[in-house]
Amino acid sequence: REHPFNCVLYKTLRLLLRINTNAVLQSRIGSLLLNFPEMPDIHADDAFFNKLQYNRKTEAYRQAMEIARLILLNYHPDVKNGQNHVLALMFDMNLLWERFVYVSLSNKKTQGVIVRQKETKNFWRFEDGRSRSMWLEPDIYIEWNGGKVVLDTKWKNLDGNKPDIQDLRQMYAYTKYFEAKKVALVYPGTSDERKGNFYKEGNIQNESGEECSLIPIDVEQNIKDWQLRIWNKIKGACKVIT
Fold first, then answer.
1. What are residue 150's phi and psi, to 5 degrees?
2. Whole-structure pTM value
3. How many Cβ atoms from other residues are within 10 Å of residue 184's Cβ?
């Protein structure tokens, strides 16, 4: 029972018990530790993990060992070329992508352009007002002297360049509540930007004049180049006045 794989799991769980702040996870971690007898402490470094041998009996441990290695050694996997395939298990990529796009726009903005994150407007509440109100909260809101743009970031692949219908409905609501003539869904990707218009009152012969763009943004090796690409692509697609 004291083989290296169990020792790694035991050490990792004990570390998580100390650093975790989620009450539900804390309970689950504690329950897992109850299944372990006390294990000898190990010196977990690169050399230790490189010596682990996988065979027919231990292959099932591989993914858990990769995650444990990230936690114990505080690895920072490369977003694009990392060999550790557990990044999505460690981070909420939607939140990470949203924050990265926001910071990129904030760093590159010029005088007269306002970039805000999580602009909120009330949307719905119960008639008696006792229950919590619900609100609309787009990821990124851009305002300048010439207009307003609402952006929603999505960490997903487009299916044949077709956006999800729920995403479009969400963007349509933003045009009404934020009085934005231009809204856009921002994805990671290499395809070309595409534009479309909402219909007015469902009439296919009568467009509303409110534009919704799909803006895919390719990954750059250099972070500064990537952030500049994000700013230029969104600025051009939404015609932000600078």
1. -115, 130
2. 0.61
3. 25
Distance (Å, whole) CA 106 – CA 217 = 17
Q: Which of 37, 38, 36, 14 is nearest to 26 (CA)?
A: 14
How far separated are the first and last CA of the chain, in Å rounded? 65
Looking up tokens 């909402």, which residue turns up? 198
Rounded CA separation 90/64 (Å): 12
Per-residue model confidence (pLDDT) at position 101: 93
Task: Output the DSSP codes for 27-87.
Answer: HHHHHHHHTSPP------SHHHHHT----TTTGGGHHHHHHHHHHHHT----TTT-S-TTH
The residues that bridge with 196 in the sheet, in sequence order, are 212
DSSP annotation of 185 reads: E
How many CB atoms are located within 10 Å of the residue 182 CB? 20
Residue type at 41 in one-letter notation: D
What phi-psi label fits residue 218: left (phi over 0), alpha (psi between -120 and 50 degrees) or beta?
A: beta
Quickly tell me which residue has 């990044």 as its tokens.
87
Tokens 């050399």: give the residue.
Answer: 47
Q: What is the pLDDT of residue 88?
A: 46
Q: Please give the average pLDDT of every successive group of 10 residues along the chain, which has 242 residues.
A: 90 89 88 89 89 92 91 62 49 86 86 82 73 76 84 83 86 87 89 82 67 88 90 81 49
Other C-beta atoms closer than 10 Å to the C-beta of 145 total: 8
